[in-house]
């Protein structure tokens, strides 16, 4: 009856999957949905207003317009009011003369402390003023809090600007209200990290940086993306026919990198986009709305009101592939305004729709992204695959008679299957998506880390494996008690359990998020399918079901990656030769970065970090170590480890090649990118858009499988640890059948908890950051856990007291390095392990304890182990 109930549950889940994708058949190409916010309470509107968001209120200030005659004798008037919109369906409120002076055409940036305004001009001159405005509600009224910041080093108007972290950048612009001189300067101002630090505010100062190498310019659109400042187009000044300065429209593009204080020239804009609002969006896109290309400027005085207007095109620049496309269109063209992010939309408040003509309309756009349909055929393939996994659980359930069967497969798993399972356990769908995406976005620098896996294998086989096999243990943390004491074992077990619980949740949530975004399958369906089915076959078939489903999943994943690579080659003009040429030309095959900078991914950082990171996985992670114990003997276990090592480099070569191929593909087809997706979703996007029907379902099944492979391993290994290190350890007499039943119950509870937590995460916008903190804190202990095994195996004088102090000390040192230094994240494992080892060893010498049994528990006496 129990198995029938499980079967019905699995069938119900697969049916819900089929039902959940039927609404996702439609493919949507239009990524922009335009709407209108309430019109500004001035019928003329403004050109060049300052704009931003303060306390979730949309704010515009200043600006200029022609209140009398637009043509002929009409004079431009500068305004000094502040206008605020608190409700998308409400009305604008005016704070008259609340701005520091009537002003327009400056830089405005939304900061965590309010709206920063810099420079600008009026009819007479340009200014150096810099202010920070914070608008607050005071009952039914609005209160303006204005803080003056240090003036710009020189007057500027029509400048470019951006905010990176807490640092303000002001670039280029003109020195006067009239167009007599334009510049290429760039300045920065670092805002305080703590808004309450008055001393920091008082000591602010502008710093001059390396100027833009191209022509000096004004009215150049700018945006920030991924920690860099991008500056496009603009106009420079050249002598006109009468000798006075005249505009020369530019189309060049530049990127400023703050970390190196350097500029890089990019692909030219398709057309000049003078005075266009621009904004960074997502992980790697910049949108440039409308703009003036100068081609019709000579007709302004002739056509006047009949002038046709600015372009309605929305250009999209992709920072990774350095490509431009026309991504869509606007309801009407407009210039001299600022693009502002407000409540999930990009807002363009007021601005100029024709020369001398403003608008009080406020268009807003929501970027919806491209929705790829999944389809019935793909759903069938996916469902059949998932059903086969559950079927494997039923098959192996007949053999799970004891806890030894459930936890270590009765030691009857073939070495090659155990090796493939080790590989599958280490490969979650996060890494399967993230590795090609990282290479697509950068280069091959991290390939050295995979070489380190091969180098770690001999260390594990020669020094660690004998302890796990010859001591006849089921939980790796049993060794810690034998070598040190019970407290060290409990620390190790508990650290592992808590970390794996968090990891399961992330491994369910993040891939579900990606799969939902590119296929249209509801995210809740994705989470439930992966979580519940992985729990079902794990609780039925134990470690054998886990290992054999891992084998199937690895085959599907490798096949999907190879097939994707072939299809990319076939869809890029010039095939593999073109891909290699593109990669070589754009530096995508860069393999090594020399240097000694500990904050950058230089060779030694990747190598040392890779060695220590892999030691964590292969020497202290029960989910991996448990595979060592499922084979018939130590020799077979060694073969399993070597199998995993042999597979790593060829498969890593496929992943990295896939990343470079994706880069070449999307450089050739930039319109196929989806700005609403993050970079890590690039490979699933390609799968959903480019692979044939049916094959899409199978490869997506592989991504489901990669998540389930990690989840099933965590479920079984946590259950093993809880039964072995806690239940059996503290219960003087245990009945194996009761232990087996309890292990199955624990597996179900764990699976339900992980699935529920992932579903909860999917409903919360802020929970992800809390989960990051959770995993970061527990990750501190995983490095220490690896250090504990190293202390036990490689030293004789270390004792339990010293080991505990070392574990805590290692976590503390790593916490300091993570939060108070710029050390590259790849070094974190090395820091945690080394600190634990050194502190633990020294503490043991300073705090000697009674002689503990070490015979057969270190490398110096393993040969004398009684169980050898």
Descriptive terms for the model:
868 residues; 21 helices; disordered C terminus; alpha+beta; four-stranded antiparallel sheet; 30 strands
Average pLDDT metric: 86
Number of strands: 30
Number of helices: 21
- Helix % is 40-55%
Strands of the biggest beta sheet: in what spatial order? 1-30-27-26
Any idea what the shape is? Answer: elongated
Low-confidence stretches: 22-28, 864-868
Largest sheet: 4 strands, antiparallel
The helix/strand class is alpha+beta
| CA-CA gap between termini | 44 Å
Write up what this structure looks like:
- With 868 residues, the protein is an alpha+beta fold.
- 47% of the residues lie in helices and 17% in strands.
- It has 21 helices and 30 strands.
- The strands form nine sheets. Strands 1-30-27-26 form a four-stranded antiparallel beta sheet, with no helix packed on it. Strands 2-3-6-7 form a four-stranded antiparallel beta sheet, with no helix packed on it. A four-stranded antiparallel beta sheet has the order 8-9-10-11, with no helix packed on it.
- Strand 16 and strand 17 (228-232) form a beta hairpin.
- Helix 1 (2-21) crosses helix 11 and helix 17 packs across helix 18 (736-763).
- The longest helix is centred in the middle third of the chain and has 49 residues, at 523-571.
- Residues 22-28 and 864-868 have low confidence and may be disordered.
């Amino acid at each position: 009856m129990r198995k029938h109930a499980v079967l019905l549950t699995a069938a119900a889940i697969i049916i819900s999957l089929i039902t959940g994708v039927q609404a996702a058949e439609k493919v949507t190409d239009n990524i922009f949905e335009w709407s209108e916010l309430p019109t500004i309470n001035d019928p003329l509107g403004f050109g060049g207003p300052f704009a931003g968001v303060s306390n979730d209120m949309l704010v515009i200030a200043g600006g200029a317009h022609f209140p009398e005659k637009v043509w002929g004798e009409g004079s431009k008037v500068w305004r000094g009011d502040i206008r605020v919109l608190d409700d998308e369906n409400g009305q604008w409120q005016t704070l008259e003369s609340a701005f520091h002076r009537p002003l327009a055409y400056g830089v405005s940036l939304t900061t965590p402390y309010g709206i920063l305004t810099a420079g600008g001009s009026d009819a007479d001159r340009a200014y150096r003023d810099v202010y920070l405005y914070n608008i607050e509600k005071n009952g039914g009224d609005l209160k303006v809090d204005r803080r003056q910041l240090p003036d710009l080093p020189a007057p500027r108007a029509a400048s470019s600007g951006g905010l990176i972290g807490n640092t303000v950048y002001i670039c280029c612009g003109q020195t006067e209200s009239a167009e007599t001189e334009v510049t290429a300067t760039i300045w920065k101002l670092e805002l305080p990290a703590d808004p309450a630090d008055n001393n920091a505010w008082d000591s602010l100062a502008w710093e001059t940086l390396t100027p833009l190498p191209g022509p000096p310019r004004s009215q150049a659109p700018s945006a920030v993306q991924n920690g860099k400042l991008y500056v496009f187009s603009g106009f420079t000044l050249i002598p006109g026919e009468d000798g006075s300065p005249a505009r020369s429209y530019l189309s060049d593009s530049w990127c400023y990198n703050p970390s190196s204080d350097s500029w890089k020239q990019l692909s030219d804009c398709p057309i000049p986009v003078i005075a266009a609002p621009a904004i960074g969006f997502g992980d790697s896109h910049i949108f440039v709305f409308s703009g003036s290309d100068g081609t019709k400027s000579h007709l302004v005085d002739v056509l006047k009101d009949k002038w046709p207007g600015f372009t309605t095109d929305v250009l999209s620049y992709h920072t990774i592939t350095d490509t431009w496309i026309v991504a869509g269109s606007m309801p009407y063209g407009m210039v001299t305004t600022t693009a502002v992010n407000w409540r999930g939309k990009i807002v363009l408040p007021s601005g100029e729709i024709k020369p001398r003509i403003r608008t009080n309309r406020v268009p807003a756009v929501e970027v919806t992204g491209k929705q790829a349909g999944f389809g019935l055929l793909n759903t069938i393939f996916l469902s059949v695959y998932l059903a086969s996994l559950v079927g494997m659980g039923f098959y192996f359930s007949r053999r799970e008679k004891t806890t030894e069967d459930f936890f270590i497969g009765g030691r009857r798993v073939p070495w090659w299957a155990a090796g493939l399972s080790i590989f599958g356990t280490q490969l979650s769908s996060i890494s399967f998506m993230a590795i090609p995406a990282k290479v697509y976005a950068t280069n091959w620098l991290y390939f050295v880390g995979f070489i380190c896996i091969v180098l770690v294998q001999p260390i594990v086989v020669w020094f660690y494996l004998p302890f796990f096999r010859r001591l006849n243990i089921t939980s790796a943390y049993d060794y810690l008690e034998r070598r040190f004491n019970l407290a060290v074992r409990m620390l190790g077990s508990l650290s592992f359990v808590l970390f794996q619980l968090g990891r399961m949740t992330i491994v369910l949530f993040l891939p579900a998020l990606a799969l939902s975004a590119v296929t249209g399958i509801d995210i809740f369906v994705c989470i439930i399918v992966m979580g519940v089915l992985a729990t079902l076959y794990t609780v039925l078939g134990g470690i054998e079901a886990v290992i054999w489903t891992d084998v199937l999943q690895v085959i599907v994943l490798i096949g999907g990656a190879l097939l994707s690579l072939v299809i990319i080659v076939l869809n890029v003009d010039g095939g593999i030769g073109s891909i290699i040429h593109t990669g070589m030309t754009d530096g995508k095959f860069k393999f090594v970065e020399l240097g000694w900078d500990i904050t950058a991914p230089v060779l030694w950082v990747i190598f040392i970090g890779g060695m220590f990171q892999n030691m964590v996985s292969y020497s202290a992670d029960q989910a991996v170590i448990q595979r060592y114990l499922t084979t018939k003997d130590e020799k077979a276990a060694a073969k399993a480890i070597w199998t995993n090592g042999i597979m790593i480099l060829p498969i890593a070569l496929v992943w990295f090649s896939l990343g470079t191929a994706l880069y070449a593909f999307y450089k050739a087809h930039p319109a196929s990118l989806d700005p609403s997706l993050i970079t890590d979703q690039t490979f699933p996007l390609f799968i959903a858009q480019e692979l044939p029907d049916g094959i899409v379902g199978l490869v997506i099944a592989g991504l489901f499988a990669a998540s389930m492979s990690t989840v099933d391993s965590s479920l079984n290994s946590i259950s093993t640890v809880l039964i072995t290190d806690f239940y059996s350890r503290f219960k003087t007499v245990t009945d194996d059948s009761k232990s087996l039943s309890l292990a199955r119950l624990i597996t179900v509870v764990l699976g339900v908890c992980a699935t529920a937590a992932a579903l909860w995460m999917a409903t919360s916008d802020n929970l992800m950051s809390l989960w990051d903190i959770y995993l970061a804190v527990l990750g501190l202990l995983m490095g220490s856990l690896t250090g504990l095994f190293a202390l036990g195996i490689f030293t004789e004088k270390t004792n339990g007291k010293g080991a505990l102090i070392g574990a805590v000390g290692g976590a503390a040192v790593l916490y300091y390095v993570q939060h108070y230094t710029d050390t590259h994240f790849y070094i974190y494992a090395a820091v945690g392990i080394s600190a634990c080892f050194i502190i633990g060893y020294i503490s043991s010498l300073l705090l000697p304890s009674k002689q503990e049994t070490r015979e057969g528990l270190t490398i110096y006496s393993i040969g004398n182990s009684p169980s050898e």
